[in-house]
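Students often ask what a holo structure prediction actually looks like on paper. The answer is less mysterious than it sounds. You provide the chain, you provide the ligand, and the output is a string of discrete structure tokens encoding the 3D arrangement of the protein together with FE2/S2 (inorganic) cluster.
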Amino acid sequence: MFVYNAWYMGAWADEVKTQGLLGRVLLNQPVVFYRTEDGTALALEDRCCHRALPLSHGCVVGDQLQCGYHGLVYDRNGLCVKVPGQERVPAQARVRSYPVVEKDHMLWIWMGEPALANPALIVAHPWHDDDAWVWIKDRYSIKSAYQLVTDNLMDLTHVGYVHQRTIGGTPQAHSDADTQTTRSETGVKVIRWMMDSVPPPSYVAAHKFNTPTVDRWMEIDFFPPAIVRIHTGATDAGTGAREGNREGGMAFMGLNLQTPETETTTHYFWSGAHTYDAGGLSKADLCSKLLASLTVTFAEDKVVVEAQQQSLDRLEGAPLVMIASDAGLAHARRMVAVMIENEAAASKAALNSEELSLAKRDSKDVPYEN
Amino acid sequence: MFVYNAWYMGAWADEVKTQGLLGRVLLNQPVVFYRTEDGTALALEDRCCHRALPLSHGCVVGDQLQCGYHGLVYDRNGLCVKVPGQERVPAQARVRSYPVVEKDHMLWIWMGEPALANPALIVAHPWHDDDAWVWIKDRYSIKSAYQLVTDNLMDLTHVGYVHQRTIGGTPQAHSDADTQTTRSETGVKVIRWMMDSVPPPSYVAAHKFNTPTVDRWMEIDFFPPAIVRIHTGATDAGTGAREGNREGGMAFMGLNLQTPETETTTHYFWSGAHTYDAGGLSKADLCSKLLASLTVTFAEDKVVVEAQQQSLDRLEGAPLVMIASDAGLAHARRMVAVMIENEAAASKAALNSEELSLAKRDSKDVPYEN
Amino acid sequence: MFVYNAWYMGAWADEVKTQGLLGRVLLNQPVVFYRTEDGTALALEDRCCHRALPLSHGCVVGDQLQCGYHGLVYDRNGLCVKVPGQERVPAQARVRSYPVVEKDHMLWIWMGEPALANPALIVAHPWHDDDAWVWIKDRYSIKSAYQLVTDNLMDLTHVGYVHQRTIGGTPQAHSDADTQTTRSETGVKVIRWMMDSVPPPSYVAAHKFNTPTVDRWMEIDFFPPAIVRIHTGATDAGTGAREGNREGGMAFMGLNLQTPETETTTHYFWSGAHTYDAGGLSKADLCSKLLASLTVTFAEDKVVVEAQQQSLDRLEGAPLVMIASDAGLAHARRMVAVMIENEAAASKAALNSEELSLAKRDSKDVPYEN
Ligand code: FES
Ligand code: FES
Ligand code: FES
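The corresponding structure tokens follow.
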């Protein structure tokens, strides 16, 4: 069960080159991204309406896509405009097109009702274009439901255990963090403060603190259905960070986008923008060092959520127990559940009103037995 | 759904050596091919009636097959003739035997009712034993339904797109080819002429033409349920090929046999007999060069039909649209569908008349719980 | 369908080090073995009650297990005794614990009703601690139902065919062996004598016989549901072995424990204790030579039972035929079937009497939708 009427991250902008194409399954639907001659990113159904070959096996011709099997040509709206060897193009010859917006170096796609695709609803992430920050990014294929990735991010007490060899190290401090969970305007917000705490090795490496302990924060913003932004950082202890003075500190702005591939697999995109002190390193070297280290950290999460998925699959429906630190993820899951229910209700209503037209549909659309 | 009462190619003759055996799943049934001492090819059910070990794990003893688990011995009819350690052979101890005919270097097998297995129905392919021709062959395991392979071969407009880097190159010429589709005596025939057209690189390499353009033909013969023979060739343009004069030209006789392994996997056998000019090359060198080049071409087809199968599986039953060039494959699919319907009807009638005897069947046949 | 109220071998004792842990699926249930500080072996459900991460991803802390995701701590009974970051531990927070007994270098686990776990029911195997014997051992993952492994062991006529290149070699002698199958006190016993027979190469290598032929025995003891002990050996022919004089001979005591992982996969543990003559070899060298050679033999069995499983899966329910040498395995299967039936009946009776309490169960136990 997915939320369809929402913007999902479909790809990093640089995954699709001008005149290039990229096939990817999103929410169980095959999608092909491509760019026209002027660089505009588009997305069509990745399944030729003729004999179902994925269009990503074809090629871009000007602003159009040509199927690699028998050469049908589709325009940017998914309408078939040419069938080689015949004059007439069959009226039903088209594939679905998806609204796509390129923003903040990401390709955003709307998998639901196109009329509802309002670009103003896209989560803004200005840190990808802010000179005060540098950023790194990656993409993983995760063998778990996307909500398990969200869960992971919404409960950062896991950092002390899962990442004890990397960014964790002080489980007690993480568990004892002063944590507040609230519904935000757009989703769920969890704010955690670890005042006067020993900074983890990764912090010490990234910034020169003047005090042995730091005031450290984690602000987690969940944007349903599948985005979690985590702002973490620290200043010298006692310099007023909690009251708003974060001067002289360090900060990391993590963006996590867990786009469902299928019910049990996820495209996990993330970026990390930061203000780390490069020390003697060039910014490029700092970034590649940070990427290497975070790759280890994310691999730790991947192991956990994939083991969790297998475990849940093995004993489906067996009871689980909630604890206090689940507040954030429970809110997040509830929001998503409500969105799914609302969509189901809306689509049922729409179906009823369409019954008449469906009854007229040409059954000759399905000529083959496969 | 398969047609059972038909001759399928089960193996190349040289895949089964004298006294050797070969296990292979055909139409979901496990089959073991073997040869007796005089070289006769036989096929039995590849599943010992004792404890189900495939007989292909055993060995040939004279003209008989011995199971590799507890040594039951089967004769050429599949009758168990020896149970080591006991005198009596249980009456039900037998495996199914399949009619097999060796012809034109192929082993043909009849998977249906043995009484209907008329060798005269086997598609003849004399080009495998004709001194004017040399030939090459291979076998692929394809992860798609066999009918997708047939489809591919029945609509050669795909050559211009799928094989543009190998035997294709002029998609427009392929799409514009003058094409006639007819029901033939034995199946479906598609004849295509590309008059006065630029020959593809592979043709130029294989033959010395005296004119820059050629008259080029493709004759596709579908023999249901799963064989497609394709006769292609070309002569100098304007020398009367279409009227019957193919002197001084070149020809390729391709035989394609797509035997179902399961509903979604296929043993794809093919051979290519040709009259290419060896130039400075020996016939053997020419053949191995041609085999290498066609291996690339067939790999292109394999990618396409396997992607198609995955795509069809993902959105089962979603509509597809027919185009003009589908005429050949639509006829072919219809013929196969009718054969399957007829068999189902016949077997239902037979079942009714057998009900009495079935009611008497010894239920002690199934002693184990597995 | 498994027998639950029985002792299964869960692991070799040395697979679980002090303070170490081992995750393993047994009878479809995830189990984690670990050892406390004093070395006691324990087993808990390998699925955290919080968010289902296998506890085998966590770590041992003193005598307790800590989950590697959010740090819940479980005591040796599976009771959660700590939830980091909160005072109260939820009442339902616990995982199942399994009775474990360490005996004869093996960890025995009881997967059923703990109250019935009587250690006196464990099959004793003193040969693992007898100075007159040395022994070797191993473990395989087998892709077949555990009963197919039992079948294999209960009918040793297979030795002549499956192992003809290793320990077999004289199929006729095996089939003609004088075989007696009886119900023993604890299970099924098959006794086979091959009097005055040519010893196989492995016997000749392991022992110096004074006669060209030997009197050779095989005593197979089945302990339901999943253990087979096989005592084999030989003495010089005509020296009275059958009457009880086994002086001057050689003997091998094989223990086979086929613990179900799932319905169709098996943890196959085995050990071989023997009195072979080391000749010029040290005992350690003899053992490693023997292990290497038996590894080849067991691989032959693995190929057979896995091929059998695939074959049975392909044509589920197709008839099989019994032969005389099946007596042992048929008895064994019948015993297991009766045990499963009895458990089902007992658990149905128990369920009825528990209905009232189940009706009161707190449905808030399942807070997440996964
Ligand atoms: S499948 Fe795309 S053109 Fe035929
Ligand atoms: S399985 Fe073939 S003889 Fe037993
Ligand atoms: S999953 Fe074990 S503590 Fe959360």
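Helices of chain A lie at 146-154, 159-162, 171-176, 201-206, 283-314, 327-359.
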